[in-house]
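Review session, final week

We close the course with one last complete record, chosen because it touches almost every idea we covered. It is Kelch repeat protein, a protein from Thamnidium elegans with 429 residues. Go through it on your own first, then we will talk.
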Amino acid sequence: MYLDIVYGSGNSTEELATRWTTITANTNGVNNIQSRRNPQSMVLPDGKTMLLSGGWNSDKSGLVSQTIAYNADNNSWSAYPSYTEPPFGVRQIYYASSAYVPEYGVGFYGGYEIKNIDPWFVFPTQNNLPEVFPRSQTSVFDTLSNRIFFFGGKYRNSSAGESFHYSFENSVTFNVISGTWDSQILSGIPPSGRIGHTTTLLSSTNRDVLLYGGENSLNDDKRIPNSEELDLTRSRHSAVPVYNDTLFIVFGRGVSGIAISSMVILNVTVPSNISYLSAYVDPNGVACPINSPGLSSGATAGIAVGAVAGGLIIITALFCLWKKKKNKKKKKELEESKRQNERIETPEMEVNWEAIDRKFATNPATNLAFTPRSVDDETTVADNRSEPYTHPVLVPQGLNLQRPNAIEDNVKSTLHAHPIVLQKPDGSL
């Protein structure tokens, strides 16, 4: 399914929710694209390719095509090698967190593995290794400190089968340069521990992280919102950023466990004053051509994955080309914005927690509150209960894949004399 937010510019959130279009993608020779739950997913830097890896399938027989990618330009799928690690062979991971690291690739960390009980990680040199097994975390990469920040999720230690929620009083971090694990203290009043949430690095500043939704065992609010209220309370949803000022919260499930088809639109221009929008108006609001070989004749704004009724839904915010003069103007504005961001010298990473606790327990006020911010984990645990750039930064079938979660990038690092291939913490493509 896809939603053309340009064609629907000016529509309310209720109207947009009725404008989803079902399409049939070209499988492009990919064998058996199976439904899966809790896969690792990531939008590649080209902004139009969605990478899916692993996931849990109910029959536990293993996915035929474990690592696949969907291209929104040509509406087609591609297959890539599955993650393989001697002596275990192919390993199918789910519940891991995902982060894209410029010049390195996509890294997946933690999670469970279908059937196998052996922990796995392959980063060549790691310091201060965590001592527990994480899952259901979210993560963002901070370009200033070269660290991946992990938020929320659950963990279990090696001696007990019980799982515990991570506290938001701190964030587990991994430095991709030194290979050091650490813990970053976060100031302010932390939200409660949770899974099924999203964390979005807001591109308006690249210093603020927006946490939305989630669920935990304390969710005892069973009130069903009436038709005049927004479905703000949700978990296992998708967060799709559009430009630098808007964030779409799409799908998910409510406190009663029922799937939600409505959406929430947030104005995130000023991270300290986030507000809800009743309608979305696109600056390039012109009708897209109906007949197109791909999902758009213009640029893809964002792609995300949402789990609804046990299947995968590709959520694509589409954009049509405007007049050339306007495109040039927009390009200049983006370049200026990039120069502004590059002048930021502070090493501090602001974490915008929003008073999200109220969001997944009760309906919050129109404007969200803002709190600026100033361990433990390891790798895989078995669980038998269930649970770019113009070119995709992936290795096509038939070539040697850098084992485990590493993607080669032709962009040369500004920190090294030669291109870098990083073996990611705890694996993935």
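Two points worth writing down before the exam:
The first strand starts at residue 40 and ends at 43.
The helical segments are 13-16, 324-342.
Good luck, everyone.
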